[in-house]
Amino acid sequence: MQASQTVLERRYAALGLLLIAPTVLVFCAVIVYPLVSAIYLSLFSIFTPTLQGEWVGLDNYRTLLAKDEFWSSLVNNLIWTVGTLTLQILLGVGMALVLHQNIWFRSLARSLILFPYFISTVVAVLVWKWLFNDLYGILNHLMLAVGMIDMPVDYLGTMPNAMISVILVGAWKFFPFVVIAVLARLQTIPDALYEAARIDGAGPIARFFDVTLPQLRDVLVVIIMLRAIWDFKEFDMIYLLTGGGPITSTQTLPLLVYKEAFALNQMGMAAAYAVVMMLIMLVFMIVYIRRTRQEADT
Amino acid sequence: MAHTRWTGPGMTRRTALGGLAAASAMAGLPRAARAQTAPLRWWSPQSSPAQAAAYEFQIEAFKAATGIDVVFERTSDEGYAPQLAAAFSSGEVPDVVTHLPSFAAQTYYANGLLEPFNDVIEAIGTEKYYEGANNVFLAEDGNYCATGIGNSAANMLWVRRDLMAEAGIDKIPETWDELRNAVSAMQKGGIYGAPLPYGVNSMTSLIFIGFIHQAGGQVFTPDLQVNLDNEGTRNALEFYKEMREYCPPGATNYSWGESLTAFVSGATATGIYTGRVLINVNDQNPPLADHITCATYPRMSTDIAPWTFNDFASVFIPAQSQNKEAAKQFAAFLFDPPGYIRQLHAAPGHVLPILRTISENPEYQDNAIIQKYSSEVDLMAASAANGFNLGYESPEHQSNSKAGEIIGSNIISEMVGRVVLNGDNVDEALSDASQAIEAIMAS
Amino acid sequence: MIRRVAFNLFAWGIVLAVAFPLFWMLVTSVKPQFELFRRPPTFLPETWTLEHYIRLIQDTPFLTYFKNSIILSTATTLVVVAISTLGAYSLVRFKYRGRESLAFLVLFTYLLPSVVLIIPLYLMLVSMGLSNTIFSLVIAYTTFALPYALWLLRSFMAGIPEDLESAALVDGASRMGAFVDVILPQLLPGIISTALFTFILSWNEYLYALVLVNSDSARPLTTGVMNMLVSSFNIEWSLLMAASVMMSVPLIIVFAFLQSYLTRGFGAGGVKG
Known about the structure:
The complex is a heterotrimer of chains A (298), B (443) and C (273).
Chain A: H1 2-41, E1 44-47, E2 52-55, H2 59-66, H3 68-100, H4 106-118, H5 121-132, H6 138-145, H7 161-186, H8 191-199, H9 204-232, H10 236-241, H11 253-263, H12 267-297
Antiparallel strand pairs in A: 1-2
Chain B: H1 13-23, H2 29-37, E1 40-44, H3 49-66, E2 70-74, H4 80-90, E3 96-100, H5 102-110, H6 118-124, E4 147-150, E5 156-160, H7 161-166, H8 176-186, H9 202-214, H10 231-243, H11 256-264, E6 270-273, H12 276-284, E7 292-296, E8 313-316, H13 324-333, H14 337-345, H15 356-359, H16 362-365, H17 368-372, H18 374-385, H19 403-408, H20 411-420, H21 426-442
Parallel strand pairs in B: 1-2, 1-3
Antiparallel strand pairs in B: 3-8, 4-8, 5-6, 5-7
Chain C: H1 2-29, H2 33-36, H3 51-59, H4 62-93, H5 99-110, H6 114-127, H7 134-158, H8 162-170, H9 175-204, H10 207-212, H11 221-229, E1 230-231, E2 234-235, H12 237-270
Antiparallel strand pairs in C: 1-2
Helix pairs in contact in C: 1-12, 3-12, 4-7, 4-9, 4-11, 5-7, 6-7, 7-9, 7-12, 8-9, 9-12, 11-12
C-alpha cells in the first residue's frame, strides 16, 4: 500500500511537471532568454542600428549612476507611481463602495465606470489630449466660461501641470481595476458582520473602518502590489501624453530606456538602465512582501 | 567606421550577437527564401491619403512595366528612427525608403547600412537635375548615399493678409523686430501670433537651427568643429524666448502637425511650415484661402541672408535589401514623369520637384493650387533650392554624417526648452548641449 | 428619501464625470472638420456627419489594422489561456521540487519592463523568420500576458475545493479525467475572466507593436492609428476620435456580454493572491 502510494505520487509529480512544461518552455524562450541577453547587452556599448560595439564591462552602470538624468527620472518615476497609485486606490475604493449601494441603473453605472480601464491607452491618450487642447479643448473652454482662468491652461507643456495631468489621466484610466477587485470582494462580505456591528451601535464610518476595511485588507495588499508594478513600468501612457516633456520633467525610467535605445542609439546603455530599473522594483517588491507578511502574522 | 571596430579579445559585436541568434536554432533560414518571391517594401513618412493614392499609382505602373510587386508602408517623422534601427539591426529592412532627410541618409550610409546610389542617379539622368542638387548626398567616400525625391522649404513664414490689414501692417516682416511687432499687433481676439514649436522633438531642433543661422550663427564650423556657443545662438535663444508669449499655450508640445493645424485653423496669425499649408487651407478652411501668402522667415537683420531649411527629402536603398537590382529599378522609376508629377501634385507646393525637367513640364504646372499660388510656389522652389540643413549648413561646410543622430537625440530642442521654458542659465545650457554634441561627433 | 435622491445624484455625478471623455470622443467623431476649429467649441454638433467613419473605412487601412488586432488578440488569448490553465493546475495541485521557486519566478517576470525584452526578443524573432508577422506579436505579448494569466488562474484554482477532485479520483477517474470533468467547469468563470483580461491587454498594447512590426499587413490598431493619423502634415481630431470609437467597439461588445463574469469571476478569488 505504502509503496503503491509513492508510485502514484511519483506519477502525479511527473504529470505535474508535464503540465507545467509548456509554461516553463515559453517562459524560457520569451522571457528568460531575452532577459539574459539584456543583461549581457548591458555590458557592451552598442550602436543600435548596426548592433556593433565593444565590451565595456560595468562602465555603463558606472556612467548611469553618476548621471543626473537617471536620478531625476527615478524621482519622476516615484512621484508618478505614488501619485497615481494613491488616487487609484482612493477613487477605486470610494467608487466601489458607491457602486455597492443600490443606486439607480446600477449596472449601467458600473459599466460606465469600468469603461476607461478597457479602452486602449492610445484611445485614452488621444481623448485626453483633445480635452486638454489649448485652442479647441473643451476643458479650457469650460474653465474660461466659468471664469476660473482667463488664459487657456497648458496642461501638458509646463510643470507642474504636466505631471499632475499625467497622474490624473493615469488615475482615470486605471482606477476601475481597483473598483472591479474591491467590488467583487465587497460582495462576499457576509451581511451578518454588518448586522453585528450595527447592533453594537457602530455608525456608517465606524462600520467602514471596523468591518469593511479589515475584510478588504488582503485584496488591497494584492491590488497595491500589482498596480504599483504596472504603474512603475508604465510606458505607453506617459510616452504618448507628454513624451517625457516638458524637457525631461515627466520622463520616467521606461521612457529613459526607450530614449537611450532608440533616440540616442545606445542599446547597451539602455539595457543597463533597464536592468537597474528591474533591480529597483525587485527590492521594493521584496520589502513590500516582507512587510505585509509580517503585519499579517502579528 | 563602426562596423570594423574590434572589441578587446578580437570579437565584434556582430559575432557576439550571432552567437545569441544561433542559440535560437533556426537562424536565417526563411530570409534567403524571401529573396525572389517577396514584394519590394517601400517606406515613407510622407503618406497623407492623397500621397498614398499617388504612390499606389506608381506601384501599379511599375508592376505593369516590370512585373515586380511593391508594397507601400508608412512610417512617421518622429517614428522612423526607432523603426529603421530595429529593421537594420534585424536585417528585415525595407528595400526603398523615401522622404527621409538627407542627413538621415548620410548617417546610415556612414555606418555602412546603405547601398551607394550612383547608378540610380545615372539611371534617372544626371542632366535632368538642377545643378548641384545631389551635392548634399555626397558621402565622405565620394559616392552618393541617396538622391533627392523632392525639395521642401520647411520654414517659410506664412501670413494672413486680412489680419495684417486689420492690424495696419503693410509689409510682410523681414526682420525679427518687424516680426515681433507684427505678431504683437495681430495677437488679439483669441488669435495668437505664431505657432513656433517648443517641444522636445525634431521640429523644434530643426526650426531652431534655422533661427541660429538667421542670427548669423552656426552649429558647426565648416570643418565640423562644434561651434554652438556663439553670438548668433545666444541672440536666437533670446528672440525665441521673446516669441513664446505670442505662441499658443500648447506650443510647449508643438511639432509639425500641431503647428500646421494652428495656422490652418486660423488660431495663429502667422505660420511656419512648407507649402503643405496651401492644400490644407483649401481643403479644411477655405475662407482663408484668398488671404494667405508666404515669405522666407525673418532674420535678425537684413544684412544676414535668409536661411531656408530644406530637409532634402531623399530616396535610398538599404544595403541589406534582398533585391537590390529591383529596388534600384524602382527607385529610378519613381522619377518617371507621370507618376512623379502625380506624387508632387498630391501635396502641391509641399514637395517641390528635384528635376529641372519636371518643373518645366506643362503637366506639372497644370494644377489648380500651383497656378493659384504660383508666386508662392516659385518663391518656395527658389528658396528650397538654396536651402540647407544640419548635415549641410552652408556650401562651405563638409557634409556631416552625424546630423541625423544629433537631431534624433533632441539635444538642441532640449537646450531650447531649458532656456525658454525652464529659464535655465544660457551658458550652462549651451555648454551642456555643446558637450553632448561633441560626444556624438566623437562616437 | 431625500438622502437617497441626493446620494443617487452624487453617485451619478461622479459616474458621468468619469464617462465624460468617452461622451466627448463620440460627439467629436460626428462633427465636421471645420466645426472643430470653432472657438469656443460647440457642445453638441451643429452638423452631424458620419463622413469620418466612412473615410476611415474607405480611404485608410483601418480595416486591415482592425482585422490584425482581432486575430492577434484572439490568438494571444487562446495560447496564453491554454498554457496557463495547465500551468496553474500543475502549480496548485501537484507537488514536486521547484514548485515554489517557479511560482516566485512568475511573480518576478511581472517586474520586467517591456523595454528590457524588446531588442533581444526582436533579434530572436528575426532569426526564427517571424519578424513582421502577427505571430511575432503573439509571442511578444505572451511575455506580459502569460505571467498575469498564470497568476490569476492560480488563485482561481486555489479557490476550488480539493474535495471535489479527490471525490472524482476515488470514483476511479484519472487525474486528467478529473481535471476535464471536475476542475474545468469549476474554473470556467476564472478562465473567462482571465481570457478577457488577456484579450484587453493584447488589444491595447502599444510598445511591442511599435518596435516589432513595421508593415501594414501585420500592424495592429494601436500603432496603426497613431501612425496613420498623427502625422506631421495634419492632425485630424475628428478622424482620430472616430477611430477611437471604432477601436473601442469590440471591447464594448465583449464587455456588455461578459461583464458579470468579470466581476463575479474576480470575486471567486482572482485577487486573493
